[in-house]
């Protein structure tokens, strides 16, 4: 790897995908459609794929140390059950590869306070209590930039909510390259495409569905059983009107649009196609059809997750092996970064 070639996109870098999910609660349908489902599909493309359970991000808000190992294994089980293949992808948890935290520290000296202050996720998660939040929550995007750039990842599949953090990753890479007069880090591109990139809360169509959200009724969990899924969709907030004749008719109807998007993402089609098929349908028809579709897609995955979680030692073995492979890529990149910065090691 040379860092003296002219800049430009990231053509000289190995096509490589990095992405992660926090073990901050049970996996949701948003995590599945915005992240995991696409991680699986991307294994068939031209990229090397690296998928991480980002436990160091999870602890930026309080996590019970007795529960964290189980949640970490649950996210790993979600990846595996959905079809992430540990032979074709590198799958591990972040805490096993110390270079993530080390590079994050180096990036803390590159990133600016003002950049962090502008982050929507910081504003939303800190709320009115910014003074009481951990420093880690504030510096979160710096760690995320480290996760990505430690592997010179060229592409990051994420949901819409993470777009701003990938942009900040590019800002950090650009400032590092500029300040140190090199072209060492790539300009990573976010991959945010298709329906399902921003699944909304079932009780409030203006907020995104999150695993750490307050009420269980606002989200579908990947481990929910068929009855629970049917009940949650039945109680999902909607307006009284039936589905419109065209997608334009969803414009001012966030809850209706969300349910159509979920349907489209689960069935690998477009909102237009869903509307073409269901135009004029009332919620009494559409919601049960949506619940059946979600159960059809999620039930095999949740059954496999439950089976995998019955053998935690096997999950740990897979993540430890993935971490060994991750270190092989990460360690030389970290070493070169410290060398560029003039640190003696
Ligand atoms: P938390 O509430 O703890 O932040 P989360 O549900 O937002 O949890 P993350 O671990 O922050 O999940 O994000 C993991 C991945 O899932 C990211 O790529 C993120 O963009 C994606 N994702 C999260 N929520 C959604 C959603 N509602 N729709 C689509 N993608 C989502
Ligand atoms: Mg989140």
How would you describe this structure to a colleague?
This protein is mostly helical and 345 residues long. The chain has 13 helices and 5 strands. It has helices at residues 29-42, 55-58, 68-82, 99-108, 113-117, 120-126, 135-149, 163-179, 226-235, 254-266, 271-278, 283-309, 312-341, and strands spanning 16-21, 48-53, 89-93, 155-157, 189-191. A 3-stranded parallel β-sheet has the order 1-2-3. Strands 4-5 form a two-stranded parallel sheet. Strand 1, helix 1 and strand 2 form a beta-alpha-beta unit. Helix 4 runs parallel beside helix 13 (312-341) and helix 10 packs across helix 12 (283-309). Residues 1-8 have low confidence and may be disordered. Adenosine-5'-triphosphate is lined by residues 21-22, 24-25, 28, 30-31, 33-35, 158-159, 161-162, 197-199, 208-212. The site of adenosine-5'-triphosphate has 22 residues, from helix 1. Homodimer. A motif ('HIGH' region) lies at residues 23-31. A motif ('KMSKS' region) lies at residues 208-212. It comes from Pseudoroseicyclus aestuarii.
């Amino acid at each position: 790897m040379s860092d003296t070639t002219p800049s430009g996109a990231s053509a000289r870098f190995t096509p490589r995908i990095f992405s992660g999910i926090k073990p901050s609660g049970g996996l949701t349908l948003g995590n599945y459609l915005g992240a995991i489902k696409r991680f699986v599909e991307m294994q068939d493309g031209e990229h090397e794929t690296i998928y991480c359970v980002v436990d160091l991000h999870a602890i930026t808000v309080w996590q019970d140390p007795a529960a964290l190992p189980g949640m970490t294994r649950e996210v790993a089980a979600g990846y595996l059950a959905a079809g992430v293949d540990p032979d074709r992808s590198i799958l591990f948890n972040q805490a096993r590869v110390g270079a993530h935290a080390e590079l994050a520290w180096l990036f803390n000296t590159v990133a600016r306070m003002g950049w962090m202050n502008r982050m929507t996720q910081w504003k939303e998660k800190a709320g009115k209590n910014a003074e009481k939040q951990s420093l880690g929550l504030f510096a979160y995007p710096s760690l995320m930039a480290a996760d990505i750039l430690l592997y010179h990842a060229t592409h990051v599949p994420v949901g819409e909510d993470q777009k701003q953090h990938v942009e900040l990753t590019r800002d950090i890479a650009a400032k590092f390259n500029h300040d140190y007069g090199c072209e060492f880090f790539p300009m990573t591109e976010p991959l945010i495409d298709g329906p399902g990139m921003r699944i909304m809360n079932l009780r409030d169509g203006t907020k995104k569905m999150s695993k750490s959200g307050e009420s269980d009724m606002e989200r579908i969990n990947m481990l929910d059983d068929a009855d629970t899924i049917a009940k949650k969709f039945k109680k999902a907030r909607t307006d009284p009107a039936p589905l419109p004749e065209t997608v334009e008719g969803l414009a001012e109807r966030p809850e209706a649009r969300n349910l159509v998007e979920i349907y489209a993402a689960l069935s690998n089609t477009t909102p237009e196609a869903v509307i073409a098929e269901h135009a004029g349908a009332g919620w009494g028809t559409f919601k049960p059809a949506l619940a059946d579709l979600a159960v059809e897609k999620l039930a095999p995955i949740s059954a496999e997750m439950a089976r995998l979680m019955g053998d935690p030692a096997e999950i740990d073995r897979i993540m430890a092996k993935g971490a060994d492979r991750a270190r092989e890529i990460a360690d030389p990149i970290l070493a070169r970064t410290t060398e560029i910065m003039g640190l003696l090691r």
